[in-house]
Amino acid sequence: MHILVTNDDGIHAPGLLALAQAVRPLGKVSVLAPDRNWSASGHVKTLDRPLRVKEMPLEDGTSAFATDGAPSDCVALAICNFLGEKVDLVVSGINPYANLGHDVTYSGTVTAAMEAAIWGLPAIAFSLDSPKNHLTLADFQAAEQVARQITRAVIQNGLPEGNLLNVNIPFLPMNQIKGYRLTRMGLRVYHDKLDSRVDPRGRPYYWISGDSPTGIPERGSDIGAVADGFVSITPLKLDLTAYSLFPELNQWEWDQEIGHPLLESA
Amino acid sequence: MHILVTNDDGIHAPGLLALAQAVRPLGKVSVLAPDRNWSASGHVKTLDRPLRVKEMPLEDGTSAFATDGAPSDCVALAICNFLGEKVDLVVSGINPYANLGHDVTYSGTVTAAMEAAIWGLPAIAFSLDSPKNHLTLADFQAAEQVARQITRAVIQNGLPEGNLLNVNIPFLPMNQIKGYRLTRMGLRVYHDKLDSRVDPRGRPYYWISGDSPTGIPERGSDIGAVADGFVSITPLKLDLTAYSLFPELNQWEWDQEIGHPLLESA
Q1: Is residue A207 part of a domain?
Q2: According to the annotation, is B9 in a ligand binding site?
Q3: Chain B residues touching residue A38 (CB < 8 angstroms)
Q4: Strands A65-67 and A89-95
Q5: How many structural domains are present in chain A?
Q6: Which of B40, B194, B252 sits opposite A80 (nearest CB)?
Q7: How far apart are CA A118 and CA B190, in angstroms?
Q8: Does B248 touch chain A (CB under 8 A)?
Q9: Which three-class secondary structure state does DSSP give residue B4?
Q10: Are A208 and B45 a contacting pair at CB < 8 A?
Q11: Is residue A172 one of the residues assigned to a domain?
Q12: How far is the alpha carbon of A175 from chain B, nearest alpha carbon, in Å?
């Protein structure tokens, strides 16, 4: 069992070290992560410039590689056999903030796991729902245990191809975590606002500002589970097709501007 | 009907002009697009630096705005009322390459439409399955007609909240396009390879290279429809939850390392 550990916060993030230590008892571990923070970067693949990779041991002295590419690039490098050995499982994180609801499409932590799933590998994204700004390794103590248990379960039970798990862990001591919940993606509520300013030369510029996203803590959702003190495990799939819309779209009225406006659901 | 037109190829792309011209008969049109190419950028939201926006008319002399932000930032700016008037519909493209199968998570064209859907707006991403490298406005002639017809249909029929359409148009003259097909996301086959090189100073660097992605042209998939000469219309949703995995995950064996390993699907 060869496990790739990556993240979107960069090689020096304490969450990466926590995750590496979490999965080390479960197999051979390789760490390959970005050399800087890529938060809110989305699903990036770097094709227009070459990538550098350098060895850069983790704080506990174990071997690791840092690249100037994005989180998904780390996965792509490993899948293209950069490590000289096939990868069997990809784990990403532990992100110091939650990745709940629609966060998943922005999240470098989750899109790294998606990249692995696209290539047919089982993958898990781990995030800690921390309210704090600067975390230390000690803050990840419970999350590390959770990550180990869930990764072990994935190794034991397997994950169907094209799927990944998005795990969010409440920021609580181990004995206060209430357990696990299987959840659906919830509904984030974003509070973006435009903050228009004028620079010293009189030219306008704009910040996308506003409060951090909140969420509707519905029962059954990832947001609800974490709010209730549970570890949220959301199985995700790569197929975004809204199959339920097919009947409705088939009944739409269409102009006849085009020669063949026939809707044919095949 | 106030329509926002954006893209990921930048304000000067002929596909943006084609799309603006396509939808101009359908309502009031505002164009706000990145000032450079953001292809394969994924779903980015720029929070760590301010954005600049400048007026930059399109080639046909109509008003448009260019920003140094990402495609999703264009949508966020418009939703945060940068244009001074509420947006009712977002159209993105016309991308000069197809966005089929798993391309959608990487694609700036599609993630711009996703950003709109997250905010509850109907949105459509348009891509042309062109084999060519450099396209002119004339190359988008058929795609422009298709984009107008589909946008009109969305305005007439409405699109349920949280959904978007991903449209791929074959690179054919209008009279050779066979019609429309409602499709599901197909399976891309990526051919990434690692190209390891050594720089003039003896240090290694790496290109993610290999042939362009191909696809399995299955019947019913976006890839199959475009290969058959049809316009592919794939309804997408923002909820990536793999509901079908719930029963299986509920039956997994779990270690008892944690106090409460109870799986509770709520």
Answers
A1: no
A2: yes
A3: none
A4: unpaired
A5: 1
A6: B194
A7: 9
A8: yes
A9: strand
A10: yes
A11: yes
A12: 7
